[in-house]
Every structure is written in C-alpha cells, then in structure tokens.
Design a protein that fits this description.
Layout lengths: L1 E5 L6 H7 L3 E4 L5 E6 L7 E8 L3 E9 L13 E2 L3 H14 L5
Length: about 100
Amino acid sequence: MKITLPKAKHYFSRQLIRRAGYGEIVNREGVTSYVRILGMSGYPRFHAYLEEATDQFTINLHLDQKKPVYTGQTAHNGEYDGDTVEREANRICVTLRPLLT
C-alpha cells in the first residue's frame, strides 16, 4: 500500500517515519528501509520504503508475515493490502498529520 504525504517544513521524511514507531534498517545491498516489529522473533513486522519527490514523499508499506525461508531469497509472506495494512496506514497518517504543517 502506498501512502503519499506532503513534505514537512521542519522534518525529513526519515524522521517522520521514525516518529511513527519505525526503526531504520539497511540490507546487504545498502538499501535503507523501516520496520515496526510486532512479534518477539522479529516477525510479523510492518516494512516500509520511502520514496522522495520534490514536494511530497511516499511510504510504500507492507506486512511481512515471516522471514524468508531460503538463503539468498527475498520472497516472503507479504501482505500489500487488506485490513491490517490499511489500519496501519491510517495510524501512520493520524500520527504524522500534526507534524506536516
């Protein structure tokens, strides 16, 4: 699910996603993304990528249900829409809305 928001005057997008409870991670290829872990094992977790534009940014959000099974594979049980992802998107918007003015 993609959430597009206007850029904030006083915050970078990476600061905003962290304010929404997400931690920053960097994969082996050096790509930065953000996660909010729901389970003690690290899964399930909400996983987000940020896409920057001139006057807005997009949060590309999905739910990782479990860790990839095969070494070297990125395939996983991910949900890109549905009630759970939609509720999390709404929670992010409600959390960030006061910071976007």
